[in-house]
Every structure is written in C-alpha cells, then in structure tokens.
Amino acid sequence: MKISARNLLEGKVQKVTKGAVNAEVTLVLAGGETIVAIITNSSVESLGLEEGKPAYGIIKASEVIVGKGIDGAKLSARNVLAGEVTSVVDGAVNSEVAIGLAGGAAVVSSITKESVHALGLQVGDRVSAIVKASNVMIGV
Q1: Which of 14, 20, 52, 72 sits in a 20 to 30 Å window from 89, CA-based?
Q2: What's the chain's average pLDDT?
Q3: Is the CB of residue 98 less than 8 Å from the CB of residue 86?
C-alpha cells in the first residue's frame, strides 16, 4: 500500500482506552516517544488493536504544527514531539520542514514560508512537532 501522507510512524500499541463512541489509542515509537490518536471504537475493532500490536501513526504533513521555544508551554494538543530540524525546503508559498526525533523517526511538516522565516527555522534548531490526537490516523 502507498499513501500520500508524509508521516508514517512505526510503533506498538501501548494502550487502548474506549469511550462511548471513540477510543484513545497510544502508540510508543522505537525511540520511546508516544503518539496519541482518537479513532472510532469500530476502527479499533476492525484493526484488531490491542496492547503490543505493531501499528503506524499516520499524519499528513499539513496537520503538523512546528513550535520553537515551547518548553513548559501548556497546549491542548496531545502530541508534542521534540526533535531537531534536519531540513528546510522553501517553496513559493509553503515550506517543508523535516524534524528528526531522538529515536530516529522523522516528522515532516508543511507550513507557510512566512512561518518558517518568522520562527527563524534553520537546520539544527530544537523544535517540537505538534499534532492534535484527532489528526492522527492508525494503520496496521
């Protein structure tokens, strides 16, 4: 299978918490980082998600917010993945920012060129990839 989403993060299901309609699924990546996704209970069942099962967190690059200097900030987003900028590719309007995580995984963000310059993003900068749990899909 090929998909258009730039971020396919491999991990294992750490926890599944079911609610009335939706479930919270926590994946742990190889480097120890965690990703939380909110998906339907029926998706949990159809994917056979349970603790220890290999799975992927799938995130479109356009859903990844880049934060710089946010240590200690309180955010409503469940996923705040600290890393280092490994590349910045400017386009006419949008730029692509790749963020290397401690465990070796990478997260790609598509943000405006103006935002890249406002943040002063450069290779080597410490940043965070921020993603709402409702914007994370799970694949097996």
Answers
A1: 72
A2: 97
A3: yes
Put simply, whether the predicted model's pTM sits higher than 0.90 gets the answer: yes
Report pLDDT digits (tens) over 46-66.
999 999 999 999 999 999 999
Neighbours of 7 (CB within 10 A): 24
85 touches 123 (CB < 8 A): yes
Q: 44-48, 70-74, 106-110: which has the minimum mean pLDDT?
A: 70-74
Output the pLDDT for position 66: 98
* CA-only gyration radius of the chain, Å: 15
End-to-end CA distance of the chain: 11
Retrieve residue 42's tokens. Answer: 């029926």
Q: Where do we find the tokens 């994946």?
A: 27
Contact 50, 38 (CB under 8 A): no
Q: If you write DSSP's letter for every residue of 64-98 in order, what string do you get?
A: -EEESS-TT---S-SEEEEEEEEEEEE-SSEEEEE
- The candidate with the shortest Cα–Cα distance to 81, out of 48, 52, 104, 54, is 104
